[in-house]
Amino acid sequence: MRRITKRVYGLLALVIGFACGLTALAGSLAAHGAKWAGSRANAHVFSNGQLVSAGGIYDRNGVALAASAGGERILPESKTTRMATLHAVGDPQGFISAGVQSVFRAKLIGWSAWNGMYPLVRYGRGSDVLLNLDAELCATAYKALNGHKGTVAVMDYRTGELLCMVSAPSFDPLHKPENMEGDEKYDAIYMNRFLHGLFTPGSVFKIVTAAAAIENIPDIHTQVFTCTGKYATGEGYVICSGTHGKIHFEQAMNNSCNAAFAAIAEQLGEQKLRAMAEQLGFSRQYAIDGIPLSPSRFSGGGMNVLELGWAGIGQHTTLANPAHFLMLMSAVANGGEGAVPRLVAGIRSPGGFVAAYGRKESGVRLSAATARQLVELLRSNVQNKYDSDGSEDAMQLCGKTGTAEVNGKKPHAWFAGFSANPQTPYSIVIVAENGGSGQGVAYDIAAKVMRAVCG
Ligand SMILES: [Zn+2]
Fold this sequence. Notes:
Elements: H1 2-37, E1 46-47, E2 50-51, E3 57-58, E4 64-69, E5 72-74, H2 79-84, H3 86-89, H4 100-103, H5 105-109, H6 118-123, E6 128-131, H7 135-145, E7 149-156, E8 162-168, H8 193-196, H9 206-216, E9 225-227, E10 230-232, E11 237-239, E12 245-247, H10 249-254, H11 258-268, H12 270-279, E13 287-288, E14 291-292, H13 305-312, H14 322-333, E15 337-339, E16 344-348, E17 354-356, E18 362-365, H15 368-386, E19 397-406, E20 409-419, E21 426-433, H16 438-454
Parallel strand pairs: 3-6
Antiparallel strand pairs: 1-2, 3-4, 4-5, 6-16, 7-8, 7-21, 9-12, 10-11, 13-14, 15-18, 16-17, 19-20, 20-21
Helix pairs in contact: 7-16, 9-11, 9-12, 9-15, 11-13
Zinc ion binds next to α11.
């Protein structure tokens, strides 16, 4: 009898052990299944470490940006399209971690916690990812960057649909260059500069300073500023790029006068300027389709009056993320109600069923009255300064250029703006890294891309 009891206990211990093991396995499968299924050792999906048998990635017009056929990954025929969409789609080896092929890998290979690898076994592939991007517009933007490092992005500011997202430098995934490491030409090649770049904003930051002035300085529109080519703060000078004489707020914005904006920053004080920067999304963590952006950073606390002057014109230690700046422009364009950009439109199951992906999310917000005044100022910039022949009148292009000084190199050229014509509700951001002048370089790129999208 004693022996039997012993055996029963022994058996019970075995059963409990087995049950625990099974639970641990199920838990582990739920937690890590997507990773295991998506492992490059999985021969159903990968060949030589490359994704070969998976769902496709399509642009808004149904153009395949990556698709699987016959055990191979097929990419667009045009080299420019392959290079222009590389950072959005991701590279075959997965070095571009923010690319759709990495972020949406579980969907593309057809793994789900519920069905495991069933879709892959049944259909030979997973779901398709349908993007809001327009591949042709991306190619136009990539060409317009003309060899500059940087980024160009365009969104529909009413819906949040991201129509264009280009990051450079890029490479052709079919002919990947060797020895990119350490070559300055391929600096931070795997980074998507739109999502994760942080750049000194220079004068595009004057939009933030202007918003703070509109809300905190009641007589801002009637004040007269004097620019002698520099502004004395008492701690040193903020240098202007011109000698603008006596000017009003609007003219200060048109001429991007550093002296006037340093004076405005001083009137505001650090606290009010910081409060507006934070209201407009500085230091905030946004994400696009689950991909976290690098948050923009306003200059460090406790600035002296000279540092505050430089901060007011987007210098000092302020850094801006291009995706965040596009969100900021979208909020201004859309009456104060900004949306978060949306890269992915839908997921198409192997059976052909399309499910919409994500939903419209609220982004940067500001008061409708402030947004309206900013639209007028930004439209006046284009009319009076950037667009000499009225080519952008039909789209009512609004915006601000920036020429951001960086240590020891050519400045970054920025443009942030939008079309105020309700028929073409598109906002745009450009950064040409060490590209030179905002008005000379970035505005030309913006005009080309906006003409392509607005028609
Ligand atoms: Zn000036």
